[in-house]
């Protein structure tokens, strides 16, 4: 059975707003979307799934994003930060497990000066010159981003969260803006980073029009990576009573992204695995080609609680590696240990 809008999306990598609205709001295209997305991912990346070792370096954060458990005003959050030595020992373990990308993610923690971040990045690149270093430490000045890049950082993840300024305003305090977040993303791209943007699916107040705006913004930015996952509420945030996003809509959006951005690196996220036990496998089948196993020291993992019931907080890194490899194979793909740079045609 051919599905006209799915075929058109696949061929032209674009659709009108009306056509997108129809795809996003109805389940009748899901089968066609998933099949087409998997074909396109195989044309571009074969059956390869890239592994990124995720090191959650700090649970301190000066921001107050209304959805996030690490927000500064959450007095119940347990805070920790990793030293340079601890981060390097995570890398050592990760290297042994075959990871060739390390992602340093954290709250916006002013304890780490630019000099400290540069020193950490430099040390990782010195010890592991065949590895890529990805930073995901929030909104900084262009000068800071330039320094990290000079120090050897290859990639930067900064989800735009929502492209619509009014919706952004409902998810963030008044001292944050979607304008600045987008400015950061364009700066990062100009500097030369491989850049990852992305958004939560089913975040409070999100409409179909917001999701369409997210797709339009991504068309403008043309990022190398796009990270999406369902919104999951956290008990100690103002959004504690808000509904979670669904796996169904997240998977649909993943397939649409694969068809619009055939070359993109699309993670099948931990949040997707949290709302559904087989979520990450389904994410790969819907067009995802990246997974980000947790490499953080086990004793801090539960403290990096951006949402409730986060999975993969109990196991040792080696166990995560084995578990994910089995999941990837059961979904019909192959975990590869290489840097996994974006393949732009
Ligand atoms: N401080 C960094 C890292 C944030 S954590 C930054 O600003 O980029 C990484 C991502 O987790 C966020 O970009 C957000 O999209 C997601 N996230 C935060 N809280 C969440 C929640 N309650 N449910 C689902 N995803 C969430």
Description of the structure:
The structure is a single chain. With 345 residues, this protein is α/β, with parallel strands linked by helices. It has 14 helices and 9 strands. It has helices at residues 4-12, 17-25, 30-45, 84-96, 114-127, 142-151, 165-171, 178-191, 208-221, 247-260, 270-275, 279-285, 298-301, 317-330, and strands at 48-51, 53-58, 101-106, 132-136, 155-157, 194-201, 225-230, 290-291, 334-336. Strands 2-3-4-5-6-7 form a 6-stranded parallel sheet. A 3-stranded parallel sheet has the order 8-1-9. Strand 3, helix 5 (114-127) and strand 4 form a beta-alpha-beta unit. The structure holds S-adenosyl-L-homocysteine (SAH). S-adenosyl-L-homocysteine (SAH) is lined by residues 67-68, 105, 107-108, 136, 138, 158-159, 161, 200, 229, 231-232, 234, 271, 306-307.
Question: Could you give a quick summary of the protein structure above?
Answer:
This protein is of the alpha/beta class and 345 residues long. It has helices spanning 4-12, 17-25, 30-45, 84-96, 114-127, 142-151, 165-171, 178-191, 208-221, 247-260, 270-275, 279-285, 298-301, 317-330; strands at residues 48-51, 53-58, 101-106, 132-136, 155-157, 194-201, 225-230, 290-291, 334-336.
